[in-house]
Write a structure and sequence with these properties.
- The protein has 177 residues and is mainly alpha-helical.
- The protein has one domain: Up-down Bundle (Four Helix Bundle (Hemerythrin (Met), subunit A)), CATH 1.20.120.
- The chain contains five helices and two strands, in the order H-E-H-H-E-H-H.
- A two-stranded antiparallel sheet has the order 1-2.
């Protein structure tokens, strides 16, 4: 099987995975709201969705415009790392269970999760997303997309982490009252 075919198969799996992820997120958000969950940072969410959608389009568009000139070792390494990211993402989703979604929703009394990958990292999903933002485009040799969207993602993570930290702090203050 050619590396190009592997790249497009992995891209298709990634798109299908994102659609499934959004379905799980929607179901889990409903679960959170039913339990009094409060959403934080809703204003930036549409920009995050636009960025992630643009990312998927950009990496294929760059490949179609410029082709791939990266060495095979880079492409194969990117495939392995991107595949590992998918496994890690589902470990995170399974660890968080009903608390996982793509929004910042805090459920009173739910508490912080400290098992699974959260034993090792405070925000493992952001590590996965940052790694994917860089490696997925490299599968296509789309290094411009990797650089541009890694920078955009760093900005988005800065926004998200500030929102999440405020949400968690609000939850702690609410518990203390």
């Amino acid at each position: 099987m050619s590396l190009e075919l592997v790249a497009f198969v992995l891209f298709g799996i990634t798109v299908a995975e994102r659609i499934l992820e959004l379905k799980v997120s929607h179901r889990n958000a409903a679960w959170s709201f039913e339990r009094g969950g409060v959403e934080y940072g809703a204003a930036h969410y549409k920009w995050m969705v636009a960025m992630h959608t643009g990312f998927l389009v950009a990496m294929v568009a760059e490949y179609l415009m410029y082709g791939s000139s990266l060495p095979s070792v880079v492409l194969v390494s990117a495939i392995v790392v991107a595949g590992a990211c998918q496994l890690m993402r589902w470990w995170i989703i399974n660890t968080l269970g009903s608390q996982w979604n793509t929004r910042v929703i805090v459920v009173p009394g739910a508490g912080r999760v400290s098992k699974g990958p959260y034993r090792f990292l405070k925000h493992p999903n952001y590590v996965v997303v940052a790694t994917e933002m860089f490696t997925l485009p490299l599968i296509f040799g789309s290094w411009r997309t990797a650089i541009i969207f890694s920078a955009l993602n760093a900005w988005m993570m800065w926004v998200r982490l500030r929102v999440e930290n405020r949400a968690i702090q609000q939850l702690v203050l609410t518990k203390a009252s």
